Amino acid sequence: MRKLRASIKKEFLLLINDKVGLLLMYLMPVLLVFIITLVQDSTFKLVNENSLEIIIVNKDTGDLGDTLISHLESTGTFTIKKRNELSEAEIQKTLLNGSELIAIKIPVDFSQNLNSKATNISINMLSEFEMADTNNLVNYSETLPLIMFYDPVLQESFRFSVLSTLYSHLSILENSLMIEKLYAQMGYDEIPKGMKNQFMNNQIKIDQVSANSSSREVIPNSTQHNVPAWSIFAMFFMVISLGGNIVKERLSGSFVRLQTIPASFSLVLISKTFVYVFVAITQLAIIFALGKLVFPFLGLPSLVLPSNILALFVVSFLSALSAISFAMLVGTYANTQEQANGFGAITVIIFAAIGGIWVPSFVMPSYLQAIGSISPMHWCLEGYYTLFLKGGDWYLLTPTLLFLILFILACQILIYIKLKIQNYI
User: Fold this and answer.
1) Does domain 50-200 sit in CATH 1.10.3470?
2) What is the pLDDT of residue 213?
3) Tag placement on the chain: N or C end, fewer CB within 10 Å?
4) Which pLDDT tens digit goes with each residue over 309-338?
């Protein structure tokens, strides 16, 4: 026991003297969590809360162009800037040079085309009941010439979201006109009182319910996603410090000298594991504390810790052991510190990319999702998502726990085989 305490003390001293390694393991993840969460939270707010500035160029000679603008303003999603004097070339130039990302041009014949289209639809409907004559159909442009200009930097998903909103309000406008024309064709001077409002407001409400296995509701947000994800990334990035440390000791002859002292080598491995588990747990504690206590002061959602604290400890401990085992594996098989640092860093980045740390796994192609399932980061992240977002039931955690245990055992067996071949043990 005395030798173990001495060995652990030695490893702590080595760690403290590794200033670059400490910065990578503590400062880098804190900065990543802050920056990524701030960026994603701003994106969420832009889509869900803040209004998007758009330019409207209304050339319409009728009143339906103004009606469409009023509908868009009423959503609260858009801040309308009316620039009716702009030509198409000037619209494009304005988008490229200004802060706005989207412009909509309402053409001269917008009202005429909509009215004509609604009239023809009502005539065709009533002609089925021999209540209207199809000879009264009017000519109009089949293609509604409403044009949406956009800045090329605008992401496709965001552009489709704006298009969907436009189509929705155009549909409401067209349906309202169709009802008016339908009643007019039937000889009514006006639509019966309340009928138009009833039709316009007859939309089915959609309730959003998170499929959370816990009765306690946790609303997914940028904090709940990013804090666990980048905590995992921080743990695995200890490969730079731990992997390089093992290579350095092996090349300096420390392993050979330790063979002359009974049980010393096993003590070294146990000591390194103990020290870096402490590092990983303190990393998590710092990042979770920042998410819980500091984020609200920056206008970010506060981190809601899972109710199953025991499961949180188990997943965190196994995630830490997975990161440590991987770092020791890299350090054992690398021939130089440069190899350990380069291969370790690149592999961690690949694991993060395919494991869902950077981009959610569900948006990846199916074959990439299958490949990503071999990443230990994927299973660490699944474990934290189960805890933070899905209630943390043990049966949901079982696949995560099994994979992490198998990954740890596989790394340790490979380490043992390599050291046995090299006669270090």
Assistant:
1) no
2) 46
3) N
4) 899 999 999 999 999 999 989 988 888 888
SS (H, E, C) the chain: CHHHHHHHHHHHHHHHHCHHHHHHHHHHHHHHHHHHHHHHHHHHHHHHCCCEEEEEEECCCCCHHHHHHHHHHHCCCEEEEECCCCCHHHHHHHHHHCCCCEEEEECCCHHHHHHHHHHHHHHHHHHCCCCCCHHHCCCCCCCCCCEEEECCCCCHHHHHHHHHHHHHHHHHHHHHHHHHHHHHHCCCCCCCCCHHHHHHCCCCCCCCCCCCCCCCCCCCCHHHHHHHHHHHHHHHCCHHHHHHHHHHHHHCCHHHHHCCCCCHHHHHHHHHHHHHHHHHHHHHHHHHHHHHHHHHHHCCCCCCCCCCHHHHHHHHHHHHHHHHHHHHHHHHHCCCHHHHHHHHHHHHHHHHHHHCCCCCHHHCCHHHHHHHCCCHHHHHHHHHHHHHHCCCCHHHHHHHHHHHHHHHHHHHHHHHHHHHHCCCC
For all residues of the chain together, what is the average pLDDT? 78
CA angle 328, 231, 310 (to 5 degrees): 90
Phi and psi at 365, nearest 5°, equal -60, 155
Over residues 382-424, the pLDDT tens digits come to: 999 888 877 778 888 999 999 999 999 999 899 888 877 876 6
Q: At what angle do helices 264-289 and 309-333 cross, to 10 degrees?
A: 130
Residue spans of the domains in the chain: they are 2-44+219-421, 50-200
